[in-house]
Amino acid sequence: MGKYVNKESLTQTLSIQLNMSKKDAAYAVDLIFNEMSDALASDGHVDITAFGKFEIFDRKSRMGINPVTKERMMIQATKLPKFRPSQTLKNKCNK
């Protein structure tokens, strides 16, 4: 099984690598993710060099079927974040 990364592990790595308190590292990680979320929420883009790009994808409304009642229903249009990996990340994953 590969390495598992979440906010806690990012906080710990940041704390150790930069010799800072865990509280400050957690604040920095939250600040980064909040900035990314705010950009996407305002229809912006997040472009991280050598990693990838996050963009908002407009999903059109469509017909669906309620699995319980089998009744056809209209599913509303939504906006979703979409990730496109950089070529650098693709190459790293395929080594």
From TrEMBL:
Gene3D superfamilies (UniProt xref): IHF-like DNA-binding proteins (4.10.520.10)
Biological processes annotated in GO: chromosome condensation
CDD domains for the chain: HU
GO molecular function: DNA binding; structural constituent of chromatin
Record's keyword terms, sorted: DNA condensation, DNA-binding
One GO CC term, this protein: cytosol
Top-level taxon of the source organism: Bacteria
Family membership noted in the UniProt record: Belongs to the bacterial histone-like protein family.
Protein name stated in the entry: DNA-binding protein HU
Biological source species: Holdemanella biformis DSM 3989
